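Review form for a predicted model. The reviewer records the input and the model, then writes brief findings.
Reviewer: anonymous (R2)
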Amino acid sequence: MSFHSSNIKRVFVSVVVIASALCLVSDVAAQQRRRAPLGNRSAVVVDERLAVLRDGPDLSARLLQRMSRGRVVLVLGAKRAPDGLTFYRVAVTRRTGGWLQSEAVVSPGREDEDERLLRLIRGSDDFDRVARARIFLDMFPRSPSRPEVLMLYGEAAEAAANRLSRDAVRRLDEREMTASGAPLFSYFLNYSGLDRYRRQGITFTFNRAAKQFHYDGESWREIVRRYPRSPEAQDARKRLDALSSIAAK
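Model under review:
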């Protein structure tokens, strides 16, 4: 290899390393922004079905964009429409703003918003329950309803583990996995169906003999640790005991 081509190779490798590092820093920074404490005027989209940003405080106003669940906005004002609905005037970015139906978002700066979100969590199923519970846990660390939400979050995660186990067994071809030379359990723990749950803070364990995912029980451990006298604590202990017996097999 010539001196010139060797230099080019070294420069290329350096660029790749620097680019990878910048991506990592950017990803960490993004996670820190998502976890940053919200101000009293901040609000988070919890019901994406209603989260239509409009150019006026009315359902007939022009649609600007649909907002995804988890999106943070800044509430600048409110107005009641003739049909009785309340709309918030919000800023989405420095250059983008509009009006959102109030029920689409919750704000830690408004009274009883934790209870309103809890009602929505109770009425949700499957992944929607997990995602909305995660928003609650991030937004309302001191809410008296936190033990109940922790229990709902964990129950939804374990129910998801059962569904994901069936899906993974059906979709992963054992003969193909064996031919690759990689350990079979690694395919299961890399199964793409887990990804969106992991982004919600859920960790799954995997029973290799039964080919079964299980929720790791972190929310139940928080109940036992922080709320030992709550109504949910006894159930949380039972669930943790069940997990321990599974792990011991």
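Findings: Residues 3-35 form the longest helix (33 residues).
Further findings: The radius of gyration is 23 Å.
Recommendation: see findings above.
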